[in-house]
Structure formats: C-alpha cells, structure tokens
Automatic annotation (TrEMBL):
Protein name: AbrB family transcriptional regulator
TM annotation in the entry: 20-48, 60-79, 91-110, 156-175, 195-213, 220-240, 246-263, 275-299, 338-356
Organism: Paenibacillus typhae
Alphabetized InterPro entries for the sequence: AbrB_dup, AbrB_fam
Keywords assigned: Membrane, Transmembrane, Transmembrane helix
Amino acid sequence: MKESTTVPGPLKMAVTLATALAGGGLFMVLGLPVPWLLGPMIATLIGANLNKQYYTWPGALRNSGMIIVGYTIGLSLTAPALKEMAGQLPSMLLLTGLLLLFCAGIAVIVSRISGMNYKTVLLGSIPGGLTQMIVLAEESEDVNLTVVTVIQVVRLMMIIICVPLLIFSPLFGPGTGSGEAMPLVTAVSPSFRELFPNFFIYAFACTFCAVAGQKLKFPTAYLLGPALVTSVLQLSGLTGPVLPDLLLNAAQLMIGVFVGLLLDPRRLNNKLVTLLLAVLSSVVLISGAYIMSLLFAYFDKVSVSTALLSLAPGGMDQMSLIAHEVGADLPTVAGYQLFRTFFIFFAVPPLFKLVFRRKKREASATG
C-alpha cells in the first residue's frame, strides 16, 4: 500500500512551487514585509505539516538562491560605501559591539526564563539577517532550527513594523541629515538585457567561490563567497549588473521554501511561551537600539531619525527606504547597516564556533 501512495518527484516539486508562489503572492497583495521570503516559507510550512508527502525541495535550489543574495550583498560594497564606513569606523565598531553584547544579554535572560538552549536563543537573537542565522544554525550542533527561525522572524516583523511607526510618530521630527539623498538601487528594476556580458563572469566567479568556500568549511560559504568575490571584482573596475526584481524574488523564494520545509512545529516546546518571549525580546532590542541612537545622535551630531535607522537591527534595504522618505542622512544609514551586516557575517560565525567549541572542550574535561 505504501508503494502505491508514493508521490512522484516532479509532482512534489510542482506542488511545492505552487504553494510557494501562492504564499508569496498573498504576502505581496497584503503588503507584508519581504513577501517572497516569508510568504513561501510560511505557506510551505503549513502545507508540509498538513501533508508532508507532497512536498520536497532540493538543497541545490536553496544554495542557488543564497549565491544570488550573496552577489547582491557584494554589489553594495561600493567605493563610496567603503569610504563612508572607513570615516566612521571607530563609532561603527563601538555601537555594533554594544548592540551585539545587548543581544547576548537578552539571550541569557530568555534562555534562563524559558529553559531553552542558550546557543539556540543566541542565534535567534543576533540581528544578522534571517537567512544568515538560519544557515549558521544548520551548521551548528545542539541548535533547534525551528526556535531560531521563529525568534528571527518575530524580530524581523517587529522591527519592520515598529521602527517606521516610531520614525513617523510625533516623537521624531523630520530627518536633519545632510539630505543629499543618494539614488536607491532598488528604485528601478533593470531589464535582463542589461545583465550581459558581465553577468557570465560574475556567475562563474560567484558559483566557484561558493563551492570552494563550502569545501574549505568557510562559514555561510554560499553567501560570503559570492559577496567577497563580487566586491573584489567590482572594486577592480568590472561593473556588476544589478539584478532584476524577478531574480531577487526567485532567490528569496528558493531560500524561503527550503527553510519552511525544515521547520517542524512539533519540535517547538511551549509554543505560546516561546512566541511571547520572542515578542518581548524584540521589544527590548528595539528599546535598546533607541537608547543607543540617542547617544549616537548626541555625540555624532546627527538627527535621532538618522541614528535610529542606522542602528535598528533590520535590513539595510528597508531602513534605507525609510531614511529616504523622512529625509534622514542616507549615506550614514546605509554605511552603518552595511558595516553591521558584514561585521556579523565575518566576525560572528568564527567567534561563535570558537567560543562554543572551547565550552564543549571544558565541559568534556570536567565531565
């Protein structure tokens, strides 16, 4: 009987893709944040838990999506962005470090209250991006991927909803940054014709570095490999074409489906408590970022709007769009967001592995 009910692979892929497209389309119609990542993730999560035998998604598709995202990250490392980051490097390093220590402290409290694994809560609390932290969680031992994803998704949703409400509230006046709003890369989606011929060079270089990085056990290799090689090629003078929205949305879908199928709500103990703690920790994190932004605004003589958008632990694209709308200093916001993103990409994975590897050795030695 079991053999007669086996679902063919192509049918599984078709059902999975149809579910993902439906989820992304619904999120887009409702105007929800990052619709082509969260929509497919939640839709396939629900579908797979209703009838898992109809759902499958190869890891190669997820990796392809990560290479595309890594390429777009590398494109943001332009010479002006690097110059902006270099000029404020001490301030960026200090405030980013304080924010990460604050997140680590929140993780300690949540871990003790909930009884959850500290490593799991820490990965859920670090504002390094949903995709990156999930990938790191996959590569780490003794980590509940479902809990990490839930905490990261709740944090992302809270920040994308709450920060704009704060910025547009009477608590904030209009931005008083330098006001020379640099053009947003995402304002106009380029055509596929504009990709060639440089697209082939970048595609080969990104794929090669992603695979090589994975072989060398590089942390989050399918993101960092393409990001690094793209920034190097771009700074050397080879223009990197901006990808059309269709490709970027497809990349998010590839990653979102894979993550959705990895999640297992049955592994989430005390669901209500976990969700409540995720919301409360996100509120505390936003409050901490606001307090630090007041200090930043005072010492660096920027508007509070600029300071908060620079330190808000959300995505660079969303924060930059809001900065443009309120007239905040967009280069400062983009520079701080970019610095934190790359600092977490490069520093957190090796530090994380080093600290917990040492703790594991100490535990085995005392045991």
